[in-house]
Amino acid sequence: MNQEVHGQKINIGMTIGSSMAFLVKNINDNNYEMDVKFEKLVMSMQMPQAKMEFSSEKKDDNDVYSKVLRAMKGRTFEVTMSKSGKITEVRNIEALYESVISQFVEISKKKKEQIKAQIENSYGVDALKRSIEMSTAIYPEKPVKKGDKWTVNTKLKTGMSANISTDYEFVDFNSDYALIRGKSIIKTDEEDTNVENKMIPMKLDVTGSMNSEIKVDKKTGWIIEAKINQEINGGVSFKLNSQMSDQMKITIKMINKMLITD
What we know:
Layout: E1 2-5, E2 8-11, E3 13-27, E4 31-46, E5 51-55, H1 64-72, E6 76-82, E7 87-91, H2 93-102, H3 109-123, H4 125-136, E8 149-157, E9 161-173, E10 177-188, E11 194-195, E12 202-217, E13 223-239, E14 247-261
Antiparallel strand pairs: 1-2, 1-14, 3-4, 4-5, 4-6, 6-7, 8-9, 9-10, 10-12, 11-12, 12-13, 13-14
């Protein structure tokens, strides 16, 4: 992510990874009900002044954030997925990380709130819906053949709210998988440009694009591999008075590269 504030450029690099296990509990006419659990959680952030790294595999009692990630491993939450691959509901994830954080009595209340906010931003309901849907919300409403195209509309909601319209194409298939490619347009939702903030009102204005290449198992429909490249440009305006005549704007450019494998 590249930001520019008062002419000063700030570059931040972030890596977020997880290994997740899915168990289908129930299938009905419209949805799949699944139990999901984390098997591994990692996060690193490279900022101009420092680099931070956290991992559920790290055994360092002085690293509180890694201890919290380690405690989240193996705990189950619930996901409902539609037959078209959209995540309609994520349940019990908030209770999961609140329960985990409450175990650490040695951590101050303020520190717990900070850790909770960081976890929610990376692994909360909206973040999980977005990360799963990136590769699963790809299916048409009716059967298609090679060469057919269809459009899927989804919503990005992790720190910002934007609409994503993707044109997918059934490109090719072989004995193992079907190949689907997607081209997306990302645009701030007009109704959600104003962001609620307790201290300073903010307004978002972003646009972007996304290219996807997805291999789908022909027998199960599950994703074998998904490569997704996303670029978002825009800015955040901070309202400094009631008329919005005095404001500060931060320009933002984000380049996201995602790899999802089975």
